[in-house]
Design a protein that fits this description.
alpha+beta, Beta-Lactamase, Helix Hairpins, 2 domains, flat
Length: 665
């Protein structure tokens, strides 16, 4: 059996190893991540630094070409001899320049190194000339290997403009050996190398001989490493993931673009070189793991000893208690401990003290049991006599219970008949309640219809009043029209008199008044017709007045009849209201009666149910009384057995005393 000390040591060692391993792995991961990040940032900084240096050098060479071109345009001297002298001086002044030359649109060509082209040479068909003309600004051509010197050369070309037209192109062949030496000598990390690509992604500088440029041309990156180099440099300025290089080693690659010529400069560093600095971390972790594990082992040994020592003492004490040895107490040093061991020791001490008390109590109880058994013997004899008396009384009670059961069964039958009759009354009451509600609804409908009739009669009465008012207005208008016809009659009479007088005056005038007499005659005729029309209008107005008076009289009679009708209908409405109130009161009484009948029905059901229960209970009681009678007889026999058992109980109490004495107190 393994001891607790060994288990604690093993557990703590496992936890320590696991914790240190996890922390070491996490620390190694974070450290390696930071170291890798710093290394790659340094690699990218190197690319940016050398890119800036190359860009500055190219810009300086381009600035020289621009100054030469601006000077030629400014002085306007395009004759061959002057240009030759000037271009020769500028060629000699620049240590990196092989030749400075100028080609015109008519294929005239002047070179500062004294080179004279053949007659079929056409400068306008050269790449440097076309590039400058197309871009109309300073351009850097793709590099090439000079056949004579074997050095890498580029051409910087600038268009010569006059009146916004290109009249020629100035070119300068520049050796880039300085850039080659700069990149080849750059070592930002051990075992790292640099490379340089032109604007067409042709390899200008690379340590691998198969990628190096030759006089036949430059190698494009798409042609090497199965095109992986293209993917590596797809995002300029971003560190790509490690990639297997031409020699089979995994490397990180960084690059940056040179703005002036759109070249790409970059560096490659082996992954092993980046991880080299992390080897020290691994050794440090292993050393720390060994030291910390040794310390943990020592501390765990002392810790396990301090824990197991009191447990061993408690184990020995528990073995003594198992053999019923309760004489000794637990060491107070163990009880005074403030941890789980101290609580365990205190609990053991409490158990021992409890066992001591219990054993004493059992011993006392055994004596009491012996005394009680003697009393039980005497009591059992008395109980046997009482049981015989109870048996005779139980027989009498059983006879009375049978008589009571018969009376209860008769009562239950009568209550069932009453319940049936109450149920019929309840159903009839509910039917009356339903009819009362229907009558109340019809009464309310009749009341609503009477209210509608009253409203309609009121509208008829108001309409009759409006008609009467209109007839009164027409009567007034007829009176005014009668007055107007009287005026028309008077005017017609006056007009007739005037026409007569005019005729008389016309007759007096003789021939001159004949025309006037004719007019006067016509006027008199019109006056007579007007008088006649006025008379007819007056008669019509008189007839209308008679009709209007008859209509007014009829309207007054109708208004009176409508008023009487409204009063009669209101009386009927009040009667319906009284009927509705009476019906509501009747319904309330019926509802109260229905509720009371339902309550009585429920109570009668309860009574019937209770009677049934009483019948069952009485039946059970009768049976139980008979059982009690039989049980009483059995009890008499049992009391004799109790007396016999009491003797046995005394013997058991004596045996219990003997058992308790086996405890060592």
């Amino acid at each position: 059996m393994k001891s607790i000390k060994i288990r604690i040591i093993v557990l703590v060692c496992c936890i320590s190893i696991l914790g240190l391993t996890i922390s070491g792995i996490v620390g190694y991961y974070l450290a390696s991540k930071n170291i890798t990040k710093e290394s790659l940032e340094k690699l990218q900084m190197a690319s940016d630094k050398y890119g800036e240096s190359i860009n500055s050098w190219l810009l300086a060479q381009g600035k020289i070409v621009e100054e030469i071109g601006d000077s030629i345009v400014f002085h306007g001297q395009y004759d061959s001899s002057s240009l030759l002298d000037y271009l020769t001086n500028r060629t000699e002044a620049n240590e990196y320049s092989i030749a400075v030359y100028l080609g015109f649109a008519d294929n005239q060509f002047v070179s500062g190194d004294g080179w004279i082209p053949s007659e079929d040479y056409k400068c306008t068909e050269r790449d440097w000339y076309k590039a400058a003309v197309n871009h109309k600004q300073l351009v850097y051509t793709a590099p090439y290997i000079d056949a004579t010197t074997g050095q890498m050369v580029i051409t910087i070309a600038k268009p010569i403009m006059q009146n916004d037209h290109v009249i020629g192109v100035l070119g300068s062949d520049i050796e880039v050996q300085k850039i080659v030496e700069l990149i080849q000598g750059a070592k930002p990390f051990e075992d790292s190398y640099g490379f340089l690509l032109d604007q067409d992604k042709n390899i200008m500088i690379h340590p691998h001989k198969d990628f190096a440029p030759t006089s036949e041309g430059l190698v494009n990156i798409s042609k090497v490493m199965d095109g992986k180099f293209v993917n590596i440099l797809s995002d300029s300025g971003k560190i790509a993931v490690p990639t297997t290089d031409y020699d089979g080693h995994d490397r990180y690659f960084s690059s940056t673009v040179i703005p002036s010529a759109e070249w790409t400069v970059g560096f490659a560093i082996p992954v092993a070189e980046v991880e080299k600095s992390m080897n020290g971390l691994i050794l440090g972790f292993i050393f720390a793991l060994i030291i910390s594990q040794a310390i943990a082992l020592i501390l765990t040994f002392f810790l396990g000893h301090s824990i197991t020592k009191p447990i061993i003492a408690l184990t020995r004490y528990a073995e003594n208690v198992a053999h019923l040895d309760l004489r000794n107490d637990i060491d107070q040093r163990h009880i005074a401990m403030r941890d789980e061991t101290g609580r365990l020791a205190s609990a053991f001490q409490s158990i021992v003290e409890s066992l001591r008390r219990i054993s004493g109590q059992i011993l006392d109880s055994a004596g009491h049991v012996a005394a009680a058994s003697e009393q039980l013997i005497a009591t059992s004899e008395q109980s046997a006599q009482a049981s015989e008396q109870m048996a005779s009384l139980a027989e009498e009670v059983a006879q009375n219970a049978e008589l009571q059961l018969k009376e209860i069964m008769s009562t239950a039958s009568a209550m069932e008949n009453i319940s049936v009759q109450i149920e019929e009354v309840s159903q009839n009451t509910n039917g009356i309640n339903v009819l009362g509600n229907q009558v109340a609804k019809q009464s309310n409908v009749g009341k609503e219809e009477m209210q509608k009739v009253i409203a309609q009669m009121n509208r008829i009465y108001r309409s009759a009043e409006d008609v009467g008012k209109s007839l009164l207005g027409i009567t007034g208008s007829s009176d005014k029209m009668n007055e107007i016809t009287d005026v028309i009659k008077a005017i017609a009479d006056q007009t007739s008199l005037l026409a007569l007088n005019a005729s008389i005056e016309a007759a007096r005038a003789g021939e001159q008044g004949k025309g006037f007499a004719v007019v006067a005659g016509e006027v008199r005729k019109l006056a007579e017709e007007s008088q006649k029309a006025a008379q007819e209008i007056s008669e019509l107005i008189h007839e209308n007045r008679i009709s209007i008076r008859a209509a007014n009289s009829a309207m007054d009679t109708s208004s009176g009849d409508v008023k009487k009708g409204i009063e009669i209908v209101k009386t009927a409405e009040e009667t319906f209201s009284d009927i509705s109130l009476l019906i509501e009161k009747i319904n309330q009484q019926i509802e109260s009666t229905a509720v009371a009948v339902e309550q009585i029905s429920l109570n009668s059901n309860h009574v019937v149910t209770a009677a049934g229960r009483i019948e069952k209970i009485s039946t059970n009681v009768s049976g139980q009384i008979q059982s009690v009678s039989a049980a009483t007889e059995e009890q008499s026999a049992s009391m004799e057995e109790i007396a016999s058992s009491s003797y046995s109980l005394g013997e058991l109490a004596q045996g219990l005393k003997d058992t308790v004495k086996s405890f060592k107190l």
